[in-house]
Specification:
Layout: E1 2-7, E2 10-13, E3 18-26, E4 33-39, E5 46-51, E6 58-60, E7 68-73, E8 78-83, E9 92-99, E10 116-117, E11 121-126
Parallel strand pairs: 2-11
Antiparallel strand pairs: 1-3, 3-8, 4-5, 4-9, 5-6, 7-8, 9-10, 9-11
Length: about 130
């Protein structure tokens, strides 16, 4: 079992930045592949960014490419999401996810692939 706890959300103005963190505990060897998802009110949960165990393989949703950066520190068992140039459409609950399997390309952005989920952290961007 892997426990995931997100932090770093908040309310910002458009154009500002936020950095989300996700701390993993428990059987962290099962957090081989990790990702960030988000869900806006009334919408489905969507994949934002994913990263492999080594950190060298990342995938981004087209809507955040060039603005968001996903990274991980395996020594600290922590996943990060640096979000720059935030837009009102980035508003939503952001969730951290992990799985023991490796995924290729955009399959890492599919929510059905992930076994473990955090409780989420709210991001609100006002115009």
């Amino acid at each position: 079992q892997v426990q995931l706890v997100e932090s770093g959300g908040g309310s910002v103005q458009a154009g500002e930045s936020l950095r989300l963190s996700c701390a993993a505990s428990g059987d962290t060897n099962s957090a081989y592949y990790m990702a960030w998802f988000r869900q806006a009110p009334g919408k489905e949960r969507e994949g934002v960014a994913s990263i492999n165990q080594g950190g060298g393989g990342t995938t981004y949703a087209d809507s955040v490419k060039g603005r968001f950066t996903v990274s991980r520190d395996n020594d600290k068992n922590t996943l990060y999401l640096q979000m720059n140039s935030l837009k009102p459409e980035d508003t939503g609950m952001y969730y951290c996810a992990a799985d023991s399997r490796a995924f290729l390309g955009r399959s890492g952005l599919m929510r059905t692939r992930y076994m473990y989920w955090g409780q989420g952290t709210q991001v609100t961007v006002s115009s």
